[in-house]
Amino acid sequence: MKLAVALLLSLTVSAPAIAAGQLSKNVVPLLYDIDVRPDAKAMTFAGRESVTVDVKAPTTTLTLNAAEIEVTQATFDGKPVKVAADAQAQTLTVTLPQAASVGQHRLTFAWTGKINTSAAGLFAIDYSNPDGSQSRMLATQFEAPDARRFAPMWDEPAFKAKFRLTTSAPAGQTAFSNMPAASVTKQADGSQLYRFGETPVMSSYLLFLGMGDVERKTVTSGNTQIGVITRRGVVDQGDYALASATRLLTYYNDYFGQLYPLPKMDMIAGPGSSQFFGAMENWGAIFYFEPELLFDPARTTESGRQRIHTVVAHEMAHQWFGDLVTMAWWDDLWLNEGFASWMEGKATNDLNPSWKAADAAIAFERESAMAIDATQATHPIIRHVETVDQISDAFDGITYAKGQAVIGMLESWLGEKPFRDGIRRYMAKYKYGNTVTDQLWGELSAATGKNVAEVARDYTLQGGVPLVTMTGARCTGGNTVVTLTQSRFGLDEASRTPQTWHVPIKLATLGGATTDAIVTGASPSLVTVKGCGTLVLNQGKGSYTRVQYDDATHAAIVRDYTRLALGDRLGTLGDDYALAAGGYQDLSRYFAVQDRVGVTADPLEWSLVAAKLGALTGLYQNTPLEAKLQAKQAALFAPVLARIGFEAKPGESALVSNLRETLIGRLGYLGDAQVAARARQYVGQLAANPTAIPPAIRNPILSTFATNATPAEWDQLFALTQAERSPVAKNRFVSLLGAARDEALAKRALELLKGKALTDPQKASLLRAIAGSHPDLAFDWAVANRDLVNGFVEQSSQARYIPSLGGGSNDPAMPGKIKAYASQFLPESARNVAEQTVSLIAVRKAVADRLRPATERWLAR
């Protein structure tokens, strides 16, 4: 699905013992036969199931999961039994009249449940058709702990079982699930009874059921039918995803050494949104919200098209990492998400090399991970999980982005082919099973002959970013002898505890040979590099570490900047900005490197510069420096936009198109008069022509208009929102209503949250958008209207949603307000995001104080 010194554990290849919050493995499910009948109009459903269970030892009680369902009947081997629900623990305990014997038995339930308005369990997606009529699609979302809202089951990843699903769909509608329908029977009332084929053994969170007035389009690749399922009228917008999936399936079948095992792989497009996820890897029935899957040539930007490919690549990678082989418990979620994130980038880079996905990962995903990991708000990649709220918290930037970066580091260190051989061994050995991380290290070690765990555990069992510092270098006999030390890089004092890693790192002289080394311990390390000349640390930026040069070598890097490989240029920009933010060196070092980024530099360099200067400006929001920084940026970016042009050109590279989006968006946010005028001109045409804005610049033009809107222009945007028939475009307009810089307009947007014109997901998106420019206003309103807000936010996101609204605030009172909210309304186990938010606010203030003198000097130049 698409945010202190550790205690090193001994190597083990067994599943972890039962931890707090986990079910007993005394009874395990083997086969679920589930029959669910939804009533979409009433927003309820009724269900019956028969579960074949294996009793490992005699017992008089069976405990499984259930939440927000009412069990009306239960039997064990055909005899009625008592059930007791624990709403807080989300469990259902069955008490037997006498102990069940060892062996297989049959457990049955009947129950009723509710269809939700946001993505948890069985949920509804309401949308408008082109003619203005209303439709409702049903879908399920079970990761992490929401299959229990659909049926009583052992809703933990280690309880793999087979599933047979039966349902009825109203006349004119189609039902779809993980497996093809084994039979479809027309009923007397015109509805159709679907019986789907039996799944392979899989975890409960991967089960899927969908239903609606849809179209399906398919292609065949080998023995697999790949399909795209959409609301009626837009199925052709799935052609790009189908073509991408066909190439990716061939790539993954080869890379993993295991053929995709299901007969079909549907990609389902839902015309809604979620505040938690964009797509979900249900085995054989991958669910996406429409912008992540459908390419609308009249509205989708080039970056949007590229995102479709990467999201499809991410979810398809899960069909192996996550679905075929699944983590034993949520502690090891990174085995799913870190690997899918890394694989999306690797596959995209190999299949679309002109996109430079590997370099983009250095500029953005790596930077995103380190920004969190260098603060007190970090945590180890592998961390202990007990509660439902803690499971939800595990889906964060450390699990995804740091996981991705660490895997990339291991491949860089071990070598592409040996690393792949280890992955193939892992897939072959553990397919259809559950694993813990050390089992992966075991297979990589067996394939490469290296002690992978020794290096990898340092990065997965402790939080933090290594800092490798060059303290000197001398040329001797035609070689360079480099002295390196290591410590922990931190943006706050709490994250600078004494800590070391085994850091695999590549060093090279510019244009010379590469030397591999592992920097260990706190004592200085001497590394000999062939050749003399400008030294490049962490060449290729494959290692997950910050690097710092001595003065002379950094001056050489600045001098020879344009001769560096693109990844090293991007990594240098990232490292120098971060080192200044942490107080390790002056920001002037970053500006010296930035000055070497010429107007004709690679688009990724300018995109990264825009991101760094945008972050710098954000530090001084509502201070005298803000306007000066905005003017400086506008002067810097305008010539670059003038060079590439406002309009897309035939045959231009995808990265140039992406940069145009970035620059228009950035200049528009800065209030550039020319860009704002163009935005008003284009938006003025939308009432007569909904696709008047060229697709290549649609998103930044709309953002510019919304950010700078006057009251009359906000009314214009609101009218466009009401008139829009495309659910994707409508959702985008709703978010734009919260983007205005004018606080009075933000307050008008807040009033929409109290009405019934918006869906629950739209309300959540709107309030999040308001918080982008007005975090204090959004947070205070959400606290004052807590019950209303929790009513439209998905349950899995409730603990994090309101505290995170205040994360962009520079008000000294905000940390106290977030702490007070968490103390009053959140259980202690659910306060992690609130604590992280407070920590990141403190980091931002500290960084602003550190960078102010150098920023003022830069502005005075």
Could you walk me through the main structural features you see in this protein, from its secondary elements to its overall organization?
The structure is a single chain. This protein is an alpha+beta fold. Helix content is about 40%, strand content about 25%. The protein has 26 helices and 29 strands. Strands 5-4-8-2-1-11-14-13 form an eight-stranded mixed β-sheet, with no helix packed on it. A five-stranded mixed β-sheet has the order 16-17-18-20-19, with helices on one face. The protein has a four-stranded mixed β-sheet with strand order 27-24-23-29. Helix 13 (about 605-620) packs antiparallel against helix 14. The radius of gyration is 27 Å and the shape is globular.
Quick overview of this protein structure:
This protein is of the alpha+beta class and 861 residues long.
What topology does this entry show?
Elements: E1 27-39, E2 44-55, E3 59-65, E4 69-76, E5 79-80, E6 82-86, E7 91-100, E8 103-114, E9 121-128, E10 134-141, E11 162-169, E12 174-177, E13 181-186, E14 192-196, E15 209-212, E16 214-221, E17 224-231, H1 239-256, E18 264-270, E19 279-280, E20 285-289, H2 302-318, E21 326-327, H3 334-351, H4 357-373, H5 388-393, H6 397-414, H7 416-430, E22 434-435, H8 437-448, H9 452-460, E23 465-476, E24 479-489, E25 503-509, E26 514-519, E27 525-530, E28 535-537, E29 546-548, H10 551-559, H11 566-581, H12 587-594, H13 603-619, H14 624-644, H15 654-669, H16 673-683, H17 698-707, H18 711-723, H19 727-736, H20 743-752, H21 760-773, H22 775-784, H23 786-792, H24 798-805, H25 814-825, H26 832-859
Parallel strand pairs: 1-11, 17-18, 18-20, 21-22, 23-29
Antiparallel strand pairs: 1-2, 2-8, 3-7, 4-5, 4-8, 6-7, 9-10, 11-14, 12-15, 13-14, 16-17, 19-20, 23-24, 24-27, 25-26, 25-28
Helix pairs in contact: 1-2, 2-3, 3-6, 4-6, 4-11, 6-7, 7-8, 11-12, 11-13, 13-14, 13-15, 14-15, 15-17, 16-17, 18-19, 19-21, 20-21, 21-22, 22-24, 24-26, 25-26
